[in-house]
Each structure stands twice: as C-alpha cells, then as structure tokens.
Amino acid sequence: MLFRSRPVEYEGHTLIAGPVHNSESMVEEFVRIYEKNRALRRIRPREVWRWLRGIDPRPRRHALPRITLLGQSEELPSFLYEAHMRWVVHRYGQANDEDSLLRAGAPGAKRAILLASDGEDADARTISALAAFRAMNPSADAFVEVRESSHASVAEAVGGPGTFVLDGPRFVGLFIAHHLTVPAAADVFAELMSADGNEMYTHLYADAEEHQAMRGDRKSVV
Questions:
Q1: Whole-angstrom distance, CA of residue 61 vs CA of residue 38
Q2: Quick one: which of 215, 202, 217 has its CA closest to 57?
Q3: Is residue 160 pLDDT above 90, yes or no?
Q4: pLDDT tens, 27-39?
Q5: In what order do the strands lie in the sheet with 163-167?
Q6: HEC per residue, the chain
C-alpha cells in the first residue's frame, strides 16, 4: 500500500531493524512495557502545581508504544494485526540503506535495535546498518546484535558513545549454564527483565530530564 512507503512521522520512537518478522515476542514485550509505564505514570495535581510554580519541568506521561519496524519483507508481520499493536508501524527496506532508514524515521528515533540476520556475513551487514544509522542519528541509543563475540569491539568502535553490543551466543550460553545450575533463575529474570516485574528496565523509557537526574544533575529531578 502507498501509505507504507511514506516516512513515519514519529519522533522519540523505537526503531527495530532486521528480521523483524521473527521478533514477535520481543515486540510484544516492548509494547507491554510501554503500556505498563503509561498506566503507572499518572499525572498528579502536585506535579502540575510544582510546574506552575516553576519548580519542576512540565509533567507528562510516558509516550504511547510508538515503534517502527524496518523489515526485509514487504509483507506486514502477522502480529501487527492485533489491536494492541496499532501504534507499531512497518516499513520495508534494508537497514543500511539511507532511503529505507528515512522512511522508518531513523533521524528522530530515540533508540534503535539492530537485529542480526543469518549468513556468514551477518555481522558485517549489521555493522554496516549501524554505520548508516549513525550517519543520520549520532545521539540515539543503539543496541546491536552480533553473531560472533570477536565482532563486538568493531561494532562499538563504529557506533561510538551510546552503542550497546548484544552478544547473543554468549548471553544464551551464560543463561543456559546458569539455568542448569539454578533452575529457578528463569523466574528471577522474568521478574527483573520483563513487564511482569518492576523497575529494572524503566531507565530505557525515561525522559531527557530524568536521564540528567540519573547522571547527578539534581536541578532536573522531576
């Protein structure tokens, strides 16, 4: 459809690029976290009063789950037909292509997740996508999945500050080893790292003022 070829109008959104059609569980979890944060973050009368007095920044709720998927197939992922996915949009293209990134709103993204594809040169393609993304958005957080641990340093060098390498094979290996040693650890991870738990993940969705507060700038505490 024509509207799928138009650039998205989101700002401050999450961009996920790569084999997104195989990432239903991850996208589902992101939407749940967005919705949970939005439900928890109620604007209170005291916050409005402090804003009007010039004490604190303007209060606001966390954004709707605005996510853009940049996929390698023109076909819309089937899970996007679910009602709670209405704020997630899909664009077709390659993550290392400038026009594709522009359609996905890369310049205005707050964070990007670059998923590794299959093949011998998977990491080379992912790092190429990272370089293309950084050329138009040097400030967003970028989470980059690599297939081989030896390529992590290259991805960090290309991405620069705010780049976080996700070493998939190493993580899976550590998780399996830990799970075999402590079987109940899976429940702990679910509590700490998913929308079923609390607090551990919320810094990813904090506003700029809150990031400043976490860095020690107490003047911007909400």
A1: 6
A2: 217
A3: yes
A4: 988 888 777 766 5
A5: 88-92, 67-71, 14-18, 111-114, 141-146, 163-167
A6: CHHHHCCCCCCCCEEEEECHHHCHHHHHHHHHHHHHHHHHCCCCHHHHHHHHCCCCCCCCCCCCCCEEEEECCCCCCHHHHCHHHCCEEEEECCCCCHHHHHHCCHHHCCEEEECCCCCCCHHHHHHHHHHHHHHHCCCCEEEEEECCHHHHHHHHHHHCCCEEEEEHHHHHHHHHHHHHHCCCHHHHHHHHHCCCCCCCCHHHHCCHHHHHHHCCCHHHCC
